[in-house]
Amino acid sequence: MSTPLNEEKLRYLIEKSSKARQLIIQTVHHAGAGHIGGPMSASDVLVNLYFNEMNVNPDNPTDEQRDRFVLSKGHSAIGLYTVLALRGYFPTEELQTFDSLNSRLQAHPDMNTLPGLDMSTGSLGQGISAAVGMALGAKLQNKEFRTYCMIGDGESQEGQVWEAADIASKYKLDNLVVILDFNKLQQFGWQGDGESRETPINEPKKRWEAFGWHVIEIDGHNHQEISEAFRLAREVTGQPVMIIANTVKGKGVSFMEGDYLWHSRIPTDEELSSASKELEMGVQK
What we know:
- The model has no long low-confidence stretch (mean pLDDT 93).
- The chain has 285 residues and is α/β, with parallel strands linked by helices.
- Strand 2, helix 5 and strand 3 form a beta-alpha-beta unit.
- The protein is globular.
- Helix 2 packs parallel to helix 3, helix 2 packs across helix 7 and helix 4 runs parallel beside helix 5.
- The chain is built from 8 helices and 5 strands, in the order H-H-E-H-H-E-H-E-H-E-H-E-H.
- A 5-stranded parallel beta sheet has the order 1-2-3-5-4, with helices on both faces.
């Protein structure tokens, strides 16, 4: 077992996660567009990656030795933008330009406009393929950097995800870590699901293990477990690593949690105020 995060570091990460969620809601409210549920379920993992795990430097975003990150579920871009802004890649005030004409912060990530983005994503299933390519390239060039990628559970219905999974294990890419944001809710549901909209993915651990991956399953909102999972991933040899992060869609705001309608709903002024208060109170506990 590794040394757990001390109280100061744990508090620091929790505060960053709360701030990221506040910025997500404020930005979507201001823009009148964007997604909330998925970005908020992913916030703790993204904060842990950028403030605790990855070797990155906002002052030198193209450093060849930096770790790479690919947000394969590109529609959750606002979640990544808020973390990049808090990490210092660009001013948080720029979030107010989200989804507007000529903004660097489009609804899906564009690596050609914004420093800190390693891949343009949006078409589901394609981001993980790019991450596999980055990890394979590092192996072929004897580079030490690691590649991280986040996929969604809904995205996992794309056949390309499993083609990438097969190739990653074939080439024993132990420098690749993929995180499944397993919030278990779809945007529109599936035929025959009625009103549940629950993901049809059952037992993802068995599926990824069947493709030759080393699988770690965690609470995706517990920074201690997230940190330990990343540490364990660094010790795995000869296999790519899948971290199944069990998360809650809309995490942090009671009236958004577990409600598929908040996949991409825009909050009213009253809902924005109520959500912000809840998130602030959550940190003060």
